[in-house]
Amino acid sequence: MHSVVEREVELNLVLSPERSVPVPARLIYRTDDPFAVHITFHIGSDHPVRWTFARELLIEGVFRPCGHGDVRVWPTKVDGRSVVLMALSSPDGEALLEAPALTVSAWLERTLRIVPPGTEADRLRLDDGLTALLAPHSAEGSRGTPGCGSGPEDSPENDG
């Protein structure tokens, strides 16, 4: 069973040092995608804008500047308030978003309680998938796939 941790939040899209506009957004964390955080921005269009990036990046960005390339995150103070800034870059443009640090931190804490750091891979059950993939087949299906060298007709002893 998978869990989802969501939080509606109002971010500020920073247009200049003096001007920003509010942007309603939703922070989403899913245990079936344990390494990622998802942010959906509701910008008043028919199609919301969605971004996905590493949860670890957001966790670290609450405390210190991190990231490079398309996503950069860092803490700062604006008018005495603690905020987290997220700089997002894509071929369509760039955006600087400001989020309340307490809101982001509280939401991240909820994600960390359900999937502690270092246990994300356990949620993906990769070992179970690899075991099933590499397990010997039952006697009924043991002939293998033609042309893959696994059937008796492909063995060198039967070339005679």
Which helices and strands, and how do they pair?
Blueprint: E1 4-16, E2 19-30, E3 36-41, E4 49-54, H1 55-61, E5 66-68, E6 71-78, E7 81-90, E8 93-100, H2 101-114, H3 120-124, H4 126-134
Antiparallel strand pairs: 1-2, 1-8, 2-3, 3-4, 5-6, 6-7, 7-8
Which terms would index this structure?
4 helices, single chain, alpha+beta, 8-stranded antiparallel beta sheet, 41% strand, 160 residues, disordered C terminus
Structural class: alpha+beta
The spatial strand order of the largest sheet comes to: 4-3-2-1-8-7-6-5
Strand proportion, as a percent range, falls in 35-45%
**What are the segments in which pLDDT stays under 50 over at least 5 consecutive residues?**
141-160
Helix content, binned percent: 10-25%
- The SSE order reads EEEEHEEEEHHH
Tally of helical segments = 4
Distance between the amino and carboxyl termini = 55 Å
The tally of beta strands, per DSSP, is 8
Mean pLDDT: 84
Structure notes:
There is one protein chain. The chain is of the alpha+beta class. It contains four helices and eight strands. It has helices spanning 55-61, 101-114, 120-124, 126-134, and strands spanning 4-16, 19-30, 36-41, 49-54, 66-68, 71-78, 81-90, 93-100. The chain has an eight-stranded antiparallel sheet, sandwiched between helices. Strand 3 (36-41) and strand 4 form a beta hairpin. The longest helix is centred in the C-terminal third of the chain and has 14 residues, at 101-114. The protein is elongated and about 65 Å long. The relative contact order is 0.13. The model is unreliable at 141-160 (pLDDT under 50).
